[in-house]
Write a structure and sequence with these properties.
The complex is a heterotrimer. By secondary structure, chain A is mainly β. Chain A contains four helices and nine strands. In chain A, the strands form two sheets. In chain A, strands 1-4-5-8-7-6-9 form a seven-stranded antiparallel sheet. Chain A has a two-stranded antiparallel ribbon with strand order 2-3. The mean pLDDT of chain B is 88. The radius of gyration of chain B is 15 Å and the shape is globular. The N and C termini of chain B lie far apart (44 Å). The chains are: A mainly beta, B alpha+beta, C alpha/beta.
Chain lengths: 161, 106, 363
C-alpha cells in the first residue's frame, strides 16, 4: 500500500510504536519504512538512542530506554518521518514537525489529520517552537484523544465559514 | 493581484528594489534579482513567443537556458534567453514574431 | 587568450566541489557558468538533504549552495565567469566562450566538464501549451525568483523530483490537485509521498496524461488509467481543470560539450541517456578532459558533490600537482559514493556505471 499510495498499513505504523507504559513519557516514533541512504536522525541524537546499522541504508531503530524525548531527531529528519508521542490516561500528546505556511496559536483547536490526509477529530495546539537548530522546521506540540494514538499524524487549521 | 510570494515557511521574503522596464511598449516593473522571464511571469505574462511555422503560443518551460521557449528580443538583440538573463533598468523587451525572424533568414 | 591550469565548465554542485580541490592544490582555476548565479540546482532546493554529514545531510540545498561558495571565497587563483556560455571546445583544450556579447578564448591544461542535466519531456497532444513546465523550472520560478505562475497544478511523475517539487509548491500556496504516475508504484522515497498524503494530495498510480486542453494556454488536462502495458483503459478518462501542468519524468545528461570535444559517448538508459565514457578517475576518452556530476549519470546532488571532489583530486594528479591530502581524500570520497549507492535505490546507477566502464574498455 505504501508503495502505491504513500500511506503505510496500520500494522506498519503500530510496529513503530511502543506500549503505553513506555509511552508514559515522550518517545521518538520513526516512520522510515524504506532503506534509503540517510542518517541525520542517528547523528543528531545527543544520547545515541537511534541506531542505523550495518550501514546508512538501514532503517533507524529507537531504543526507548535511552530516548529522552528531546525532539532533536524530529526536526533533523529530512523526510519529516519522525514525531514524539506520549500517552497519559485518555489523552495522547505529540510533537510533530511542520513546514507549511499556516501558523498556529497556542490554545487553539485544529483538525486532527491521519496519514491519508483525512480529518479524524480535533487537536489542541499546546506549543509551537522554532529554534535556530530546527532550521526552519517548526515543532508543534498537540493533544488529541488517546483513541487517535495510531492514526494521528498532523494538523490542519479549521476554516471558518 | 501579485504573483509574487509574500510569505513562505522556509524562504526569506525581503522587500526588493523595483526595476522599471518596457514590455511590448508598456512601462512595467520587476524587482532586483529577477530575470527578464521571472519578471514577466510575475506580471502575469503567459505567452513568451510563438512557434515559427504554426504560430502556436510558447511559454516558460525549462528555466535554465536550454529550450529556447522563452527567447525574446531585448534592446534590439534577438533570441535572448530571457530565463537566464538578469533584468536591468530600462530594458526594452518584445516578443519575437515570425516576420522578424524570416527577415534574417532571407 | 586567457590561460589557466584548470577550466571547469558549470558552477553547480559538482563544479564547485571540483574547484575547491583544484584551488587547494594551488592550481589556477576558472569556473565558467552560463547563469548569473552559482550553485546550479542547489539554489532552488529548499528541502533538507538526505545522506550523511559529509553530504551535508539535514542542510537545506539553498544553504549548501552558499556553503560551497564560501569554501571558495579565500582563493585568489580562482576566477569565476558568470553569464558566460561555452560555445566551442577544441582538442588542443582551447575553449571559446561568449561573455556579455564578447567572444573570448581560454586555453587550459585540463578541463572538468560539470554541465549537469536537462529535464526530459513527454509526448502528448498540446504538450507545447504555455503553463506546461518542467518540475525544475517550476521549482526555479517559485523558490529562486519567488514568483507564482498559477494557483493550481497537476504533477506528472512520482520520482523524488515530482514528489519534492509538489511539496514545495504546497509550501508556496499552490494547490496540487493530483500527482500521477504511469507505473504501478511511487518512484521516489515513500517519506516524500507520505508528506504529500498527509497534506491531502491525491497520488494515483497507473495513470497518464492523454492530452492538454486549452487555446492560448493550458486550461485543463485529460488523465486516463493505463494497464501494465501502458495502454489506455477505455472509459477511464478524467478532465481536471488546472492552471499549471508540471512534467517530472526524469533527467537527461547534458553530454553535448563532451561530444563536441570528440570524447566518446554512449547511450546508457540506467544513467539517463547519452553519457561521456569515463574511467575510474573521471577522465574522458580525450586525455586531460574530465567529467562529473549528472552529466556522467543522473543521480542526486549528494553524489554530484562527491564526484566533483574526486574529479578535482584526479585532475590535480593528472597535472602532477597533487592535493596535499590526495590519498586520504580520494579514499574518503570514494567511500561516500559507495555508501550512497550501496542500497536499493542505487542499484540502477551501479548497473549503468558498469555498462559505462565496459563501453570504455571496448571503445
Amino acid at each position: 500500500m505504501l508503495n502505491s499510495t504513500g500511506v503505510p498499513d496500520k500494522d506498519q505504523v503500530v510496529s513503530r510504536f511502543f506500549d503505553e507504559k513506555i509511552l508514559s513519557s515522550y518517545k521518538a516514533i520513526i516512520e522510515c519504512y524504506e532503506d534509503i541512504p540517510c542518517n541525520p536522525c542517528a547523528t543528531s541524537c545527543p544520547v545515541s538512542a537511534i541506531t542505523i546499522a550495518p550501514d546508512i541504508h538501514a532503517q533507524p531503530v529507537v531504543d526507548p530506554s535511552v530516548c529522552t524525548g528531546c525532539s532533536i531527531c524530529v526536526t533533523s529528519c529530512p523526510g519529516l518521518a519522525i514525531m514524539l508521542a506520549t500517552v497519559k490516561k485518555d489523552k495522547a500528546r505529540f510533537k510533530i514537525p511542520y513546514e507549511m505556511n499556516e501558523s498556529f496559536e497556542k490554545g487553539t483547536e485544529v483538525h486532527a489529520i491521519n496519514r491519508s490526509g483525512e480529518i479524524i477529530g480535533v487537536a489542541k495546539v499546546l506549543n509551537v517552537s522554532n529554534y535556530p537548530h530546527q532550521l526552519k522546521t517548526r515543532l508543534i506540540t498537540v493533544e488529541v484523544d488517546a483513541s487517535l494514538l495510531h492514526d494521528f499524524i498532523t494538523i490542519r487549521g479549521i476554516q471558518h465559514g | 493581484m501579485t504573483n509574487r510570494i509574500v510569505e513562505h515557511p522556509i524562504l526569506e521574503v525581503k522587500p526588493k528594489k523595483k526595476i522599471r522596464f518596457v514590455f511590448e511598449e508598456k512601462e512595467v516593473e520587476g524587482v532586483e534579482g529577477d530575470t527578464i522571464a521571472s519578471a514577466l511571469v510575475a506580471l502575469g505574462v503567459v505567452t513568451m513567443g510563438h512557434s515559427l511555422k504554426k504560430h502556436r503560443p510558447r511559454g516558460f518551460y525549462c528555466a535554465i537556458g536550454n529550450c529556447a521557449s522563452c527567447d525574446m528580443t531585448v534592446n534590439g538583440i534577438k533570441n535572448v534567453r530571457t530565463c537566464i538573463t538578469p533584468l536591468e533598468e530600462k530594458m526594452i523587451v518584445k516578443r519575437e514574431f515570425v516576420e522578424d525572424i524570416q527577415d534574417d533568414i532571407r | 587568450m586567457i590561460y589557466a591550469d584548470v577550466l571547469i565548465v558549470g558552477g553547480g554542485p559538482s563544479g564547485l566541489t571540483a574547484a575547491k580541490m583544484c584551488c587547494e592544490a594551488g592550481l589556477s582555476t576558472i569556473i565558467v557558468e552560463r547563469s548569473h548565479i552559482l550553485g546550479g540546482q542547489l539554489t532552488k532546493q529548499t528541502h533538507k538533504f538526505f545522506g550523511s554529514k559529509d553530504q551535508y545531510a539535514k542542510m537545506r540545498g539553498i544553504d549548501i549552495a552558499v556553503k560551497l561558495q564560501e569554501d571558495l571565497a579565500s582563493f585568489n587563483t580562482l576566477t569565476m565567469m558568470l553569464e558566460t556560455t561555452v560555445v566551442g571546445l577544441y582538442e588542443d583544450k582551447v575553449v571559446t566562450i561568449l561573455q556579455h556579447n564578447e567572444y573570448k578564448k581560454i586555453k587550459a591544461k585540463a578541463i572538468i566538464l560539470a554541465t549537469g542535466a536537462s529535464e526530459k519531456f513527454l509526448a502528448f497532444e498540446n504538450n507545447d501549451l504555455p503553463q506546461i513546465v518542467g518540475a525544475g523550472a517550476l521549482q526555479t520560478l517559485v523558490n529562486l525568483y519567488q514568483v507564482i505562475p498559477g494557483k493550481s497544478m497537476v504533477m506528472i511523475g512520482s520520482g523524488n523530483i515530482g514528489l519534492i517539487v509538489s511539496y514545495q509548491m504546497l509550501q508556496a500556496g499552490i494547490e496540487v490537485k493530483k500527482v500521477i504516475e504511469a507505473t504501478d508504484r511511487i518512484g521516489g522515497y515513500k517519506v516524500h509521498a507520505s508528506k504529500l498524503k498527509r497534506l491531502g494530495v491525491d497520488i494515483q498510480t497507473r495513470k497518464t496524461i492523454k492530452r492538454a486542453i486549452g487555446k492560448d494556454q493550458l486550461e485543463a488536462v485529460e488523465i486516463v488509467r493505463i494497464d501494465e502495458n501502458f495502454q489506455e483503459i477505455e472509459g477511464t478518462s478524467e478532465i481536471i481543470e488546472t492552471d499549471l501542468l508540471c512534467v517530472s519524468v526524469g533527467l537527461s545528461p547534458l553530454h553535448q560539450l563532451a561530444s563536441m570535444m570528440n570524447c566518446k559517448t554512449t547511450y546508457i538508459s540506467e544513467l539517463g541517456g547519452y553519457v561521456p565514457l569515463i574511467d575510474d578517475h573521471f577522465q574522458c576518452s580525450v586525455p586531460g578532459v574530465f567529467a562529473c556530476g549528472d552529466m556522467v549519470g543522473i543521480e542526486e546532488a549528494s553524489s554530484a558533490m562527491m564526484e566533483g571532489y574526486l574529479a578535482g583530486l584526479y585532475t590535480c594528479n593528472y597535472l602532477n600537482q597533487p592535493h596535499l591530502e590526495a590519498e586520504s581524500l580520494i579514499s574518503h570520497y570514494e567511500n561516500q559514493l559507495y555508501e550512497l549507492r550501496n542500497g536499493l535505490f542505487g542499484r540502477k546507477t551501479l548497473r549503468g556505471i558498469e555498462k559505462r566502464k565496459e563501453n570504455l574498455i571496448h571503445a
